[in-house]
Amino acid sequence: MPRSILDESRIHPAVRERIATLNADIVKEVEAAVAANAVVVVGMRQNPMPKHARRILQRDNVAHQYLEYGSYFAGWRRRNALKMWSGWPTFPMVFVKGVLVGGAEDLARLHASGELAKLLA
């Protein structure tokens, strides 16, 4: 699944380091959580969809790590790094066994179809 990303050769060398390190800490934190946990939900305050995703998991006693970054009023610039890294445009971002499965509605579909249980088995 190729997606368009500006080729490094088209980025001036003077700004490459800034691009490479801008909010890299938040991406590293999520990568570490995804590596250490079977299920990770990345969300934000005030957004009801991360809560919806967590409720789906809690109903089935699925252990998961929840990471929360900002709200509608704060933290959006830092969250942009996660969107650029994953390619996923909204929150939550749900990872199962290291794989981005989408958001809350996608998780609900996986749960309803039984696919989530298969992924976790």
Name the structural class: alpha+beta
Large-scale geometry: globular
> Averaged pLDDT, please?
96
**SSE arrangement, N to C:** HHEHEHEEHH
Strand order within the widest sheet?
Answer: 2-1-3-4
Q: What amount of the residues lies in strands?
A: 5-15%
Please characterize this protein's 3D structure.
Strand 3 (93-96) and strand 4 (99-102) form a beta hairpin. It is globular and about 50 Å long. The protein contains 6 helices and 4 strands. Helix 3 packs parallel to helix 5. It has helices at residues 13-21, 24-36, 48-59, 76-86, 104-113, 115-120; strands at 39-43, 65-68, 93-96, 99-102. It is of the alpha+beta class and 121 residues long. Strands 2-1-3-4 form a 4-stranded mixed beta sheet, sandwiched between helices.
What topology emerges from the helices and strands here?
Blueprint: H1 13-21, H2 24-36, E1 39-43, H3 48-59, E2 65-68, H4 76-86, E3 93-96, E4 99-102, H5 104-113, H6 115-120
Parallel strand pairs: 1-2
Antiparallel strand pairs: 1-3, 3-4
Helix pairs in contact: 2-4, 3-5
